[in-house]
Amino acid sequence: MSAVEHVTCLGCGCACDDITVVVERGRLTEAQRACVLGTAWFGDGQVPQEIRIRGRAGTLERAIAEAAKVLTDAQRPLVYLAGDISCEVQRDAVAIADRLQGAIDSLAGTAGAGVLAAQRRGRAGATLGELRQRADLVVFWGVDPGARYPRYSARYAVDAVGLAAPAGRSSRRVIAVDLGEARGPADADGRVAIRPDAEVDALGTMRATVQGRVAGTNAALAPAIALVHEMTQARYVALVADAEPGPIPLDPDRAEALIALAQALNGRTRCALSTLRGGGNRSGADAVLTWQTGFPFAVDFGRGYPTYRPHAGAAERLAGGEVDAALVIGAPATLPDSVARGLAGVATVAIGPRASAAGWNPVVAVDTGVAGIHEGGTAFRMDDVPLPLRPALEGEDVRSATATVRALRERLEGGA
Ligand code: SF4
Predict the structure, then answer these.
(1) CA distance 411 to 98
(2) How far apart are CA 269 and CA 51, in angstroms?
(3) Half-sphere exposure (CA, 13 Å, Cβ side) for 220?
(4) 9 in a domain, yes or no?
(5) Whether pLDDT at 85 is above 80
(6) Which of 5, 83, 137, 146 can bridge 234 by disulfide, Cβ–Cβ 3.0-4.6 Å?
(7) Looking at the domain assignment, is residue 358 inside a domain?
(8) 51, 131: one domain
(9) pLDDT tens string 354-411
(10) Strand order, beta sheet including 270-276
(11) Closest ligand 1 atom, CA of 12?
(12) Does 395 lie in the same domain as 320?
């Protein structure tokens, strides 16, 4: 039995890097400090090791050759970055898309509305470490992080002891904003109810109030106005909102309205908007694409250089018949439904954890290990802080995604 400390969990965007993993005979038997979601993400570390070529078992060499043929024969190839791969693999995937003069998109597009709003307006943000140290008022805007980001409150914004919060939870005030069924944490110190269809109006009114531009009173928006007065009196406000899609569709103007409110509050006090992101290193995909191409998602190399089509991501391209072959790198189980549905109609190559179980029947499927469990590299937390991955099962007999994708890249660069 051995224990590996400071392992990073990619079960959600919190990317907790304080996990101790216990290994017995090549299996993970315990992930100490991981939440329920994280424990499920680690599992026992066992992954399939199949290579399938047109439904039959094959060698890696043949799989790479067939994958290269499928992709180079295509007129409009798409590369898609799914979850549970490192930034190093994502970087090679960008090079492949460039080589193919194809399009590339990623899971980062799930929070596309917020990314686009930030590109238009800028963004008043902060690292989670900064929130932990300084926030004295935490406003959860229609989200209880306990469900999808279980340790967010304990590690960062609420319970943790910080410079300006020497007593942790009791040093901070927590407000839950309830938007219909999208409710804030049950144990908040205060609650504000806003009708979901009035959310964007409420955010606009709050911003106008901060800027001293609201005249008269509107009874329906009075709770929101009272809340923003409280926010202006805090020393450091963390405004926390979920950037990922959920069961309740978000107003398309909401992301920009939240950004604008956070920016306005910085004229009176300090406010950081903390947007909650999903796991699998999707924030890394955003970062890698930005540093390699200048754009965070929905990039097209069709003209021989990167162009940005933010409203024509993978799902829209697949639905519109603009793709005739796709390379999916990462865990198929992490794909948005809209992308997975579209892949059923095109020739695909899947490389990643449990690729052989992909529901859309890839022409070539190569199973690999999981970033952070079987292989190292770098991943990004939801606040864009890069973290090293310390795999507990590295060296076990599991195929590397890094080496497999690199082999495909070299094959394509050498002329398939
Ligand atoms: S909060 Fe997220 S990153 Fe942390 S242990 Fe749970 S699933 Fe993993």
Answers:
(1) 14
(2) 56
(3) 10
(4) no
(5) yes
(6) 137
(7) yes
(8) no
(9) 999 999 999 999 999 999 999 999 999 999 999 999 999 987 789 999 999 999 999 9
(10) 190-193, 173-178, 137-141, 236-242, 270-276
(11) 2
(12) yes
Same domain, yes or no: 257 and 294:
no
In this prediction, residues 78-102 reach a mean pLDDT of 98
**Parent domain of 327:** 47-110+280-413
Q: What is the 3-state secondary structure (H, E, C) of 8-39?
A: CCCCCCCCCCCEEEEEECCEEEEEECCCHHHH
23 class by beta-carbon count within 10 Å (0-12 exposed, 13-18 middle, 19+ buried): middle
Q: What is the dihedral of CA 205, 209, 213, 218, to 10 degrees?
A: 50
- Closest Cα to atom 1 of ligand 1: 151
Element (H, E) at 386: strand 386-389
Give 239-264 pLDDT, tens digit per residue: 999 999 887 778 889 999 999 999 99
Task: Residue 167: name the closest of 158, 176, 175, 156 by CA.
Answer: 158
Lining residues, ligand 1, CB within 6 Å: 9, 11-12, 14-16, 34-35, 37-38, 41, 149-151
Task: Report the CATH number that the domain containing residue 304 is assigned in CATH.
Answer: 3.40.50.740
Ligand 1 atom index nearest CA of 37: 7
Residue 1 covered by a domain: no
Q: Answer whether 4's CB lies under 8 Å from 21's CB.
A: yes
Ligand 1 atom at minimal distance to the Cα of residue 31: 5
The complex's ipTM?
A: 1.00
Residues 160 and 258 in one domain: yes
For tokens 């909401």, what's the residue? 254
- How far, in Å, CA of 20 to CA of 38, rounded? 12
Q: Please check the confidence at residue 55 and state whether its pLDDT lies above 90.
A: yes
* Cα–Cα distance for residue pair 124/107, rounded to 1 Å: 23
Tokens found for residue 25: 């005979």
